Amino acid sequence: MITETARAKINLTLWVGRKRPDGYHSIDSVMHSISLSDEITLEKSNEILLTVLEGDAPAGQENLMVRAAEAFFAVTELEGGVFLTLKKRIPSGAGMGGGSADAAAVLRGLSKAYEHPLSKEDLLKVAARIGADVPFCVEGGASRCQGIGEILTPARAWEGLPLVIAMPPLFMPTGPAYQKLDERKELSIDKTEDCLKALEERDWEGLADSLSNDFELGLFPNSPGLLSAARYVQSFDCPAVMTGSGSAFYLIPGSHEEGQWIVEQIHEEKPDWFAQTAETVGRHEL
């Protein structure tokens, strides 16, 4: 039996370009893995089965974990299957890549269970077929992600940076957000290079100044609830940015102790919110 940790991600920057002829949007983003994670176990079997032991997630074909396993066996042409179990702790719809992280964990686990039948490059190609964030989640750490998210350039991870993850009970569909962004006459300023420099130099103020997410431009004007949530998290007087296209925010407090205090305040003032401390982490070993 193999146990894999499926780590959530945050977008330190997320610049969204114009819609491409294929219907997708080009992005430029710095993604960073964090300690908030799901737990997945894998055991060789004659078929592909998934059991959800904790949390709320689909157990059938609609789960990216099952699709990842199917893709792995199809590409490797190996006979057999895998029995998967999932303990789901990353909130769904948060924009933190929970489903992608789970799928990536399945690919890593199967690669180990079947003695690495694919090269790292081929494993990442399989990951790209499953979802745009899956290739990043296979290795994690910190990377610049371009194209639709499949073009990865490793960056220097800033491990141990204290975080607070705060998520109001809101579901934000990405379609309307993209539509709103498509109405822009001018694109926003891409702060990705500034962010990469701040990571390299361990420049906290530079990092704080570079944090950005274009989806805030597309979602806040059309969602009073999300805008109110943004103003609330910003009231803690530390950098606070929405991550991905979901409704979760990450805050970067000055210390782990300050982060714990913020979580306690959110639990008291917003009992229906998800709120938890976390920190940035490095790469998975493949």
Task: Explain the overall architecture.
The protein is of the alpha+beta class. It has two domains: 153 residues, Ribosomal Protein S5, domain 2 (2-Layer Sandwich); 118 residues, Alpha-Beta Plaits (2-Layer Sandwich), CATH 3.30.70. The chain is built from ten helices and ten strands. The strands form two sheets. Strands 1, 2, 3, 4, 5 and 6 form a six-stranded mixed sheet that branches. Strands 8-9-7-10 form a four-stranded antiparallel sheet, with helices on one face. A hairpin with a 5-residue loop joins β1 and β2. α1 runs parallel beside α2, α1 packs across α3 and α6 runs antiparallel to α7. The protein is globular and about 55 Å long. The chain starts with a strand and ends in a 7-residue tail after the last strand. The model has no long low-confidence stretch (mean pLDDT 94).
Short descriptors:
single chain, 286 residues, alpha+beta, Ribosomal Protein S5, domain 2, 2 domains, six-stranded mixed beta sheet, four-stranded antiparallel beta sheet, 10 helices, 10 strands, 28% strand
**Main beta sheet: strand number and arrangement?**
6 strands, mixed
CATH class of the largest domain: Alpha Beta
Low-confidence segments, given as residue ranges, are none
Mean pLDDT: 94
| Structural classification | alpha+beta
Q: And the CATH topology of the largest domain?
A: Ribosomal Protein S5, domain 2
- Report the radius of gyration as a whole number of Å: 19 Å
Order of helices and strands: EEEHEHHHEEEHHHHHEEHE
Number of strands: 10
Helix content: 25-40%
Number of domains: 2
State the separation between the terminal residues, measured CA to CA: 17 Å
Indicate the multimeric state: single chain
**What's the helix count?**
10
**Percent of residues in beta strands?**
25-35%
Based on the coordinates given, report the CATH architecture of the largest domain. 2-Layer Sandwich
Shape: globular
